[in-house]
Amino acid sequence: MSNKEKGHDVAALRRSEVRLAADGFVLLAEGCAGELVARLLDVSQRSAREARDALGSKEVGIGSAAGYSEIVQRSPGRWDVPIDPQEFGLDETGMPWWPLVESVLGDDAELWVSGVISSEPGSPDQFWHSDSPHETSEHRPANALNVLVALHDVPMAMGPTEFARGSHRLTNHVNNPSLVVEQLIYQHAGTSPQTLVADTAHPVPEPWASPLTAGACLVFDDRVLHRGMANGSDETRHVAYFTYRRSGYSTDTYFETERSVHDT
Ligand SMILES: O=C(O)CCC(=O)C(=O)O
Q1: Is the CB of residue 238 below 6 angstroms from any atom belonging to ligand 1?
Q2: 193 within domain boundaries
Q3: Which residue among 30, 34, 39, 120 has its CA within the 20 to 30 Å range from the CA of 183?
Q4: The pLDDT value given to residue 121
Q5: Domain assignment present for 262
Q6: Structure confidence at residue 155 (pLDDT)
Q7: Is residue 260 domain-resident?
Q8: Residue 8 burial (C-beta neighbours within 10 Å; 0-12, 13-18, 19+)
Q9: Could you tell which of 75, 117, 171, 184 is best to mutate to test the pocket of ligand 1, judged by most ligand atoms within 8 Å of the CB?
Q10: Cβ of residue 226 lying under 6 Å from some atom of ligand 1
């Protein structure tokens, strides 16, 4: 069945595809309806609380290799708690972003990981990073897309996600030997929009971030340079995430740990 036959707004879908291909991200400002957002928030807050309780005072570092399968500290005070789509109660292909995901990754795209990222008051800006590496020297379409859903209003002070516009084309370490893939993927102070274009005539990719209203969705090519901004408010910021991959694609950059908070 075509998107038109399924009742999707084909012109809006085309505009989103074009933005995503050009900028490496697109904002679907009215992505999720209130009822869905309320459910995602409720499950996220409960899961985040349970994971923090189970973590207790166990040692935990920064990054997925230094975390647990139930909880990872992505950067200081920024916690990633994986949540199954079943726990979220999702109809995977009924989600408002699915037509865009399907058009980029194919109708056999898979939901790879999902969960919530909660940044505590006082958590600082992350270092700029991308989530998976390029594989070929020429630019190819994305193998993975991330969807971030604002689970409540996120004003600038609460630290939405920031993107370097068009940088998904510039994080290609295969055709730019001055880039170190580990420094792109694992957060590193030396990575920034400027370093992507150092010693080239290419303009520095422009940083973009916007306050988000509850339900807004950011869909991005996971090779784009991005970072969670500092949470200077006195509330915890929760965004749900859904990472999709092209059928058969894999990298080990999402969850590298095998230990559990329940290990004795
Ligand atoms: O918290 C955010 O806004 C983004 C988080 C992120 O990109 C990450 O932890 O890899």
Answers
A1: no
A2: yes
A3: 120
A4: 98
A5: no
A6: 98
A7: no
A8: middle
A9: 117
A10: yes
Structure tokens at 206: 């422009």
Residue with tokens 């010693």: 199
CB distance 228 to ligand 1 below 6 Å:
yes
Ligand 1, residue 229: give the atom nearest the CA.
3
Let me know if residue 240 belongs to a domain.
yes
Count of the separate structural domains present in the chain: 1
Tokens of residue 226, six digits: 């991005």
pTM for the predicted model, two decimal places: 0.95
> What range defines the domain where residue 91 resides?
10-151+167-245
CATH number of the CATH domain containing 108: 2.60.120.620
Residue nearest atom 10 of ligand 1, based on CA coordinates:
74
Which residues in the chain show pLDDT less than 70? 1-7, 253-255
